[in-house]
Inverse folding.
C-alpha cells in the first residue's frame, strides 16, 4: 500500500516545524517532504535536508517544466513548492509523507489526495505570541517578521477548512495531541 499524506500548515512562527520534527523522531514511518524554495538558507539549515535551496531562475524553470505538485509565492519575491518527485520518492519507499507547507499549499495538497491525506492546522494562542516566537527564533529581520505577522491574520481564517486544529500553547501538550492524531489517522 502506498504511504499516506500528513499536512501541517500554520502561520509562520506557530511551531509547526518543531512539532513536525518531534513526530519524525517518534518512529511513525514518516518521511519529511523537502520543499524547494527561492529564499536564502538560515545558518541552521542544510540544502537537501530542510529545503532544496534554488535560485529564482532555477525555481522558475521547475515551474515551467511542471515539476511541482503545488507552489506558492508565499512572501513577495519568495516562492516555495512541493516537488512531485519528492512525494513519489517517499511513497515508493513505502513511507508516509509529512509536509510543512503554507495554508494555501496545504489545502491544495488535501484537495488533490482527498481521504489519503490529513490536513492539520496548527494555531498559535495569539498573534502577539506569534510575534514573540518569531522574535525569539532570531532568524528573520524586523521587516521580515512584520511581513509574516501581517499575513498571519489572514492565514488564521483558513483554520476551519482543515481536518483538524491543534492549538500550540503548551508545547508538550501539542506534541501529545499531534501524536494521537497521527496514530489514529495511520491506523484507520
Ligand atoms: P514555524 O515552523 O511554524 O514557523 P517553529 O517551529 O520554527 O515555527 O517555531 C517558532 C519558534 O517558537 C521556535 O523558536 C520554537 O522553539 C518556538 N516554539 C514552538 N512552540 C512553542 C510553544 N508552544 N511555546 C513557546 N515557544 C514555542
Ligand atoms: P519558512 O521561510 O519559515 O521556512 O517558511 C515560510 C512558509 O512557507 C511556511 O508557512 C512554510 O510552511 C511554507 N512552505 C514551506 N514549503 C512549502 C511548500 O512546498 N509549499 C508551500 N505552499 N508552502 C511552503
Amino acid at each position: 500500500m502506498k504511504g499516506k499524506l500528513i499536512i501541517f500548515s500554520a502561520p509562520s512562527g506557530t511551531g509547526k516545524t518543531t512539532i513536525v520534527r518531534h513526530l519524525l523522531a517518534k518512529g511513525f514511518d514518516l518521511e519529511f517532504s523537502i520543499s524547494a524554495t527561492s529564499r536564502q538558507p538560515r545558518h541552521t539549515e542544510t540544502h537537501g535536508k530542510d529545503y532544496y535551496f534554488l535560485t529564482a531562475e532555477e525555481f522558475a524553470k521547475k515551474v515551467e517544466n511542471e515539476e511541482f505538485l503545488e507552489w506558492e509565492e508565499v512572501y513577495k519575491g519568495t516562492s516555495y513548492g512541493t516537488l512531485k518527485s519528492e512525494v513519489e520518492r517517499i511513497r515508493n519507499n513505502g513511507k508516509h509523507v509529512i509536509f510543512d507547507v503554507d495554508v494555501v499549499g496545504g489545502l491544495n495538497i488535501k484537495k488533490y489526495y482527498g481521504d489519503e491525506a490529513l490536513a492539520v492546522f496548527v494555531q498559535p494562542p495569539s498573534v502577539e505570541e506569534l510575534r514573540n516566537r518569531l522574535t525569539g527564533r532570531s532568524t528573520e529581520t524586523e521587516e521580515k517578521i512584520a511581513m509574516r505577522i501581517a499575513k498571519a491574520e489572514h492565514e488564521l481564517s483558513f483554520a476551519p477548512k482543515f481536518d483538524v486544529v491543534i492549538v500550540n500553547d503548551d508545547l508538550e501538550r501539542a506534541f501529545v495531541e499531534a501524536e494521537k492524531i497521527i496514530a489514529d489517522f495511520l491506523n484507520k
About this structure: The chain has one domain: 5-186. The longest strand covers residues 68-75.
